[in-house]
Each structure stands twice: as structure tokens, then as C-alpha cells.
Amino acid sequence: MIDPNLIKKQRIILLLLIGAIFLTMIVSMGLGYSSVSYDRLIPIILGEGTFKEEFVLFSIRLPRIFITLLAGMALAVSGAILQGITRNDLADPGIIGINAGAGVGIAAFFLYFPIEAGSFVYVLPLVAFIGALLTAFLIYIFSYSKQSGLQPVKLVLIGIGFSMACSGAMVILISSAERQKVDFIAKWLAGNIWGTDWPFILAILPWIIILIPFTLYKANRLNLLGLSEPVAIGVGVSIERERLVLLLTAVALAAAAVSVTGGIAFIGLMAPHIAKSLVGPRNQLFMPIAILVGGWLLLLADTIGRNIVEPAGIAAGIMTALIGAPYFIYLLLRKS
Amino acid sequence: MVRLFTDQLHIGYGERLIVKDMTIEIPDQKITTIIGSNGCGKSTLLKAITRIISHQSGTIILDGQSISKEGTKTLAKKMAILPQTPESAAGLTVGELVSYGRFPYQKGFARLTKKDLEVIHWALEVTGIEEFKYRPVDALSGGQRQRVWIAMALAQETDMIFLDEPTTYLDMAHQLEVLELLEKLNEVQGRTIVMVLHDLNQAARFADYIIALKDGQIVKEGTSEEVIKRDVLKDVFQIDAEIGRDPRTNKPMCVTYNLLKGEDLHEKATSTISTAVHTYS
């Protein structure tokens, strides 16, 4: 009952995206402050590179590439889930306070702990994760009513309110911090991929390995939650439970991503949207495309941002915002 | 004993009771129609019976079990519901939407099984939309779209189908098309159909059993002969109706009517035209 041409189209798009990701990865490996020439890539990977070459590739470039790829994928799935359960194509992990909540967590953490201590770096994702989770939890409590359950529209409105409040709280926290700390927090907020080391990949990987297949497993429920409530109940979806479980999944995925990359918006908005415009809103079809688009977009944004201005580059979060904001306006214009 | 009945059912939003002390039995394998003026609680009753909304007190029993205690997926294998004018299925194709009706039977990653495909194929065929299966639902006409939603409900393979004003927004030919399809499903396959209708003559023509509501309570229930009567309509709709017989089906029909309100005859006559449409819409 599914158009075979549509399935064929999906397969072709998936192949093209995988190709694009590989190409971007290779380009990204070579580009940067200390360049690695492309004809040396294979020897280095085979272990025949110099110490400097190996250090640049294995300790700097590759972790960063994988982190951006994985974080982009997680954000895309998170956005797709949120768009499904809120029935709103403009939903994004940012709206349920993920970025802001994680930001407050980071800012508060910095007020009380010294920045130098090496091991604290690895606590940061955890702090961001807890901040994000806590905010999402509060938003959920406030948008839940005993009579009508979780109301998607209310969730969006309260989420926006919380984001604003968190941003305000962050300004207050930052204003009382030392200059050096402010620098780091500001960079974090801009979505400057900072967790570029293998342990961070290990921190984000389990979430992705578990939650992305789980989301695909829930695809048929997401389909129905995207229709009207009576229709979903009528075919036997327990909407309260599914909404809660999926909301938690979205929060966990986005929080895991944002905690190592810093505040990155728009990927969760754009990736599902681009995928839906290609193959329609059936989750089984568009979700895999959205995942690859999300990973690719963030990788591309970071590769460009990292090389566009010497030496520090532009934060990936700012790059995605540069692409995302016009896209968002385009969506709004097309809707009305 | 019928499969589905309610006992002293109270339904309301907050303090306000919409349906009061409702005890009804839904005849098996028959077409039942609920009629009544706007706000009388007919849609509310339909939604409560199909657990779209919860009720405040009383019970709804299906197959000897209270529906509040039954799993929602189990219920979805017994009753399908077509809500009032479901919003657009943005971007979905006809086949995709109809396949969603298979949800209660799906397990794991929900790949469509051979059985699923057979049922979906049958649902598309019986509703006459097979040829559109790869087209976007949004690109179809109102009548075709309504048939897609009916096909989705059919794909659920339930003995009972509930419909809330299935003919709204359709032109006369398409209204009849939908109702005849439902009649066929009832006659050929013995499915129980329960629907809310606004058009009295359609209710009289297609229903085996009519329940007339007013202010959340039953005024009269029975066959069309028993319900489509002058005194009942006077009570339910506040109209003075002339009841005749449909020359083709021999069912009772409301030939013409006036509003009852207003003592002054002249005032009544002039207000009829302007408000009749309003009241009757």
C-alpha cells in the first residue's frame, strides 16, 4: 500500500546522503589549522603517519567529526519526535528548554567549581544533561493538566516561556562570574563544539545506539500521534503514555547532544522538515533520511565554521543558526 | 442481551453535565442513528462510548466488560471511530493513511504483513478508492477524502463502527454515497453502525434504530416510525413538522417544518426563514 516509487526514492536519497557524509568527512579530515594532505590520509589511517599527523587526525579531527555527526543525528531525531507529538512543524528541541536548561546548568556549575581542574571537563556533559532534563521535567509538570493530560500546544508555549526565563537566569549567573569563565560559557552557548575527545563520543554513543532504534520502533505510534487525538485513540494508541515516553526520548537525545556540543538550535527543526518534504510525513520513511540529514548538516556547518575565520573559526551553533534562521522564516512564510 | 450498552451514564466537562443519566442499548448488527439539536450531547455521547473522552459516572459495557477497564488496543479491535471531520492528513498518501488503521494488530517494528495488506486492499476496494492509493489525501475531493477515512476505520476490522456526522460538508450525491456504503457494510457484513446525523430524512431512511436526544437526555428511541413523529420532533427540535412518507422507500419523512417559538404568528413566519438555517445547521 506504500507507493513503491516512494520507497525507491527514499533508498536513493539515503545512498546520496551517505555519499555526501563520507565526502564531507574526508574533506573535513584534511582541512584545519594544521592541514593534513589528502594523499596522506590512507597511510595515516593505516598507522604509517608521523606523530604530528596521527595526533591531528586521531585526536583532533576525527573525534570532532564523529561528535558533530552523532550530535546532529540525535538532534534530528529529537526534533522529529517533538514535531510529531506537538503536531507542529516548527517544533525544535530548543522549545522544550533543552538548550536553555543545559546552559543554566553549565553556568551554575561554573560559579561553584574551578575551571582548571582537568577531570571536571568530563562532568560538564553530565551537568548539562541534568540541567536539560530538569527543565524539561518542569515544563512537563506545568503543561500537564489532570483533566486533559499533556496538551501539545501548552507544552510549546510553556517551553518558550521557560527558555526565556532560563536565558534570563543565565545572564544573572554569568554577570557574577569571572571573565575567564564567562568566556567559556559564552562559547558553550554559541554551540562551539567543545567536547572533542573520544570519551565524549563514548558518553553520547549509548544514547544514540539505544534511543534511535527505539524511536524507529515507535514510528507507527508517532504517525498516529501526528493525526488528531480522536483518530489516535480510536485505533488504540494510549496517547498519554506514548507522549510521555516519546517526550522523554526526545529530551534525552537532545540533552545528550547539546551537553557535548553546546547550544545548537535549528538542526532539530530543519532535518525532519527537509526529510518530510522529500518523502512525506510517514515516520518509517522520513526518519532515516532526517537522521542522515541532521548528521550531515551539523558536520557541514562545523567544517565550514571551523575554517572560515582563522584561527578560532565560527561556532557550529552560529553556523547552523545562519543557515537555520532564513530556513525558519521561509517555513513561516510558506505556511501563511 | 446486546453487546454494547450504557448504564446511568453521566458525562460532562468540569461542573457542567452534558449527558445525564443515560441508559441505552445499542442494537447489534443494526444501524443506529443519534439525532438532536446542536449542543444536545449527541457527539459527546458518541465520544464517551468510544472512550475518546472519559465519563464522570455510570458504566459503558462492551461484551460484559466495562470499557474503562479494557485496554485501548483491545477496544480498537472491536470498535472503530470516525471523528467529526478529521483534519487534513498533511502529506500522507491514501494507502499510507488507510494502513494506519492496522495499528491495533501491529507488533514490533510494524512492518505490514500479508494479512495487513489484504485487509487494506479490501478496505480500499470496498470504498472505491483503490485507484487513488498512491495519491496524497489532500489532493482528493471532500467525498473521496471521507471515503479514505472510512477505509481507515474499515482496515481496523471491527464489528462496530461509530461515525460523527459522516456527511457534513459533502454534497447531496456524496452524502448518499457514504450512507449507502455504510448500509452495504451493515447488510452484507453485519457490522453494527452507530452515527450522529443532522438530516432527519437521512436518519429515517437509513437507520434501523433512532435515539432522539434533548438536553443530554433521551426523548424517544425506537424505529423511524416511532421517532420521526410530529410530537417527538416538536419536543426535540422545537419545530412544527409535517410528516409524510418517502414515495420511494416508504419511510417517514419530514416534508416541511416551521419553528414553534414565538406566540405572534407573523413574527414566527418571518423569523422562520432567517433562523431555520441556523437552527438546522
Topology:
The complex is a heterodimer of chains A (336) and B (281).
Chain A: H1 4-30, H2 41-45, H3 51-86, H4 98-112, H5 124-143, E1 144-145, E2 149-150, H6 152-175, H7 179-189, H8 198-217, H9 219-225, H10 229-234, H11 239-261, H12 267-279, H13 283-308, H14 316-335
Antiparallel strand pairs in A: 1-2
Chain B: E1 4-13, E2 16-22, E3 25-26, E4 31-36, H1 42-49, E5 57-62, E6 65-66, H2 72-76, E7 79-82, H3 94-100, H4 114-126, H5 142-155, E8 160-164, H6 172-189, E9 192-196, H7 200-206, E10 209-214, E11 217-222, H8 224-227, H9 230-237, E12 239-245, E13 252-259, H10 265-280
Parallel strand pairs in B: 4-9, 4-10, 7-8, 8-9
Antiparallel strand pairs in B: 1-2, 1-3, 1-5, 5-6, 10-11, 12-13
Helix pairs in contact in B: 3-5, 4-5, 5-6
Q: Can you walk through the features of this model?
A:
Chain A: Belongs to the binding-protein-dependent transport system permease family. FecCD subfamily. The complex is a heterodimer of chains A (336) and B (281). Helices cover 75% and strands 1% of the residues of chain A. Chain A has a single domain (4-335), classed as ABC transporter involved in vitamin B12 uptake, BtuC, CATH 1.10.3470. Chain A contains 14 helices and two strands; from the N terminus they run H-H-H-H-H-E-E-H-H-H-H-H-H-H-H-H. Chain A has 336 residues and is mostly helical. Chain A is globular. The longest helix of chain A has 36 residues, at 51-86. In chain A, a hairpin with a 3-residue loop joins strand 1 and strand 2 (149-150). The mean pLDDT of chain A is 86. Chain B has two domains: 4-78 and 158-280, 3-Layer(aba) Sandwich (Rossmann fold); 82-157, no CATH class. Chain B is 36% helix and 26% strand. Chain B has ten helices and 13 strands. In chain B, the strands form three sheets. A six-stranded mixed sheet of chain B has the order 7-8-9-4-10-11, with helices on both faces. In chain B, strands 1, 2, 3, 5 and 6 form a five-stranded antiparallel sheet that branches. Chain B is globular, with a radius of gyration of 20 Å. Classes of the chains: A mainly alpha (336), B alpha/beta (281).
